[in-house]
Specification:
about 170 residues, 4 helices
């Protein structure tokens, strides 16, 4: 069951679900339909089996420097310095370590051309209540709602009881 409810100025919705299992397991990329099209995109766990290509790194740099993503996620952290390939490699290594330690679970969403268009993560292994975070390129609309729903179902299948996302009203 998925309940979406408005909470406050800083929180636009909370995902609440009932679950029975635990330990995050994902063996293959997960198909996700792009809204308004017949396209099937893929959610890839950024775990030990994920191998980033130079194209992946280049796209991460480009997308993470898009104003909406950069201003919210990276401007303060990077002191106004643009997001670089080194930052992308660090992100991928950080994501892989989270899977290895089973402490957080990051995914990249790739389009039909196998290019990264979005990212989503479950920010902790707290099965009773965990935050999700996500971003998507402004050039490929129509993927995040179905991606969030797919990750919610995956979390449910892996024992999570409650997920929530903090969303800015102007986003």
């Amino acid at each position: 069951m998925l309940i979406i409810s408005s909470k406050s100025i800083f929180v636009d919705f909370i995902f609440t679900m009932i679950y029975t299992q635990h330990n995050m397991q994902v063996e293959n990329p997960i198909e996700v339909p792009r809204y308004g099209t017949k396209e099937m995109w893929h959610i890839h766990p950024v775990n030990e089996t994920f191998s980033a290509t130079e194209q992946d790194v280049d796209v991460l740099v480009k997308v993470c420097n898009e104003p909406a993503i950069y201003d919210i996620l990276f401007r303060k952290k990077l002191n106004g310095v643009p997001y670089t390939a080194q930052n992308a490699h660090s992100l991928i290594n950080w994501a892989k370590q989270g899977w290895k330690d089973q402490t957080r679970f990051s995914f990249l969403v790739k389009d039909t051309n196998n290019q990264i268009a979005a990212s989503i993560d479950i920010k902790s292994n707290n099965l009773s209540n965990s935050e999700i975070g996500y971003w998507a390129t402004m050039h490929e609309p129509g993927i995040m709602t179905n991606t969030v729903l797919t990750i919610c179902q995956l979390a449910k299948n892996n024992g999570y009881h409650s997920l929530y996302g903090l969303v800015r009203k102007d986003n």
